[in-house]
Description:
This is DUF2848 domain-containing protein. Helix content is 15%, strand content 44%.
Amino acid sequence: MGCTLRITSRDGERTLDFAPSALVIAGWAGRDREAMEHHIAELEALGVPRPKETPTFYRVSAARLTTAPTMEAIGEASSGEVEPAIFAHGGALYVGVGSDHTDREAETHGVALSKQMCDKPVASEVWPFEEVADHWDSLILRSWIVENGEKVLYQQGPMTGLLDPRDTIARFAGDAGLPDGTAMLCGTMPAIGGIRPSGTFVAEIEDPVLSRRITFQYEIVTLPIAG
């Protein structure tokens, strides 16, 4: 399975048929140690064990990558996390935004297991990484959830809180760089008010230098737990 991405650049727009051969989740990829420790504490409060090393690279089935506007999840204990998304294709990198949607109950038994249980929604729009590389730290991530019928800010912060993706990629792949066909989600930030589920998740990456943003939304279809 693959997905069609829309490349928006300073030279115009074009489409990219991206066929993922690998999907990598870079967990605990924070540059801000205090913020990362806060996120670790959030998850510890839910019963998730502390990571043995940071960052940790979780491999997930490439088929989990999706641009669909809905996703199905077992029960009501899953939630999204906004993350920068990096795509390697044709020897070049592209950046967008995605969500490391995770089953929080399964996470208490095993983080790798929980990562595999949910689809990883991403926006269908991307930018050439080379266009943002020199001002990466100026980019801003945000997410919202819907509570009691109202859209509520859930996460927000600059990229200074996360490792530069070039550093993250080097730690994962070394000097060879990210192989073509690989998609990588590159870390998240603490939730405002704590981690909690929502039937709607909205995520955004903003580039204030070039005055543009990518925003996407997906709905969660809850499947019953039969036993």
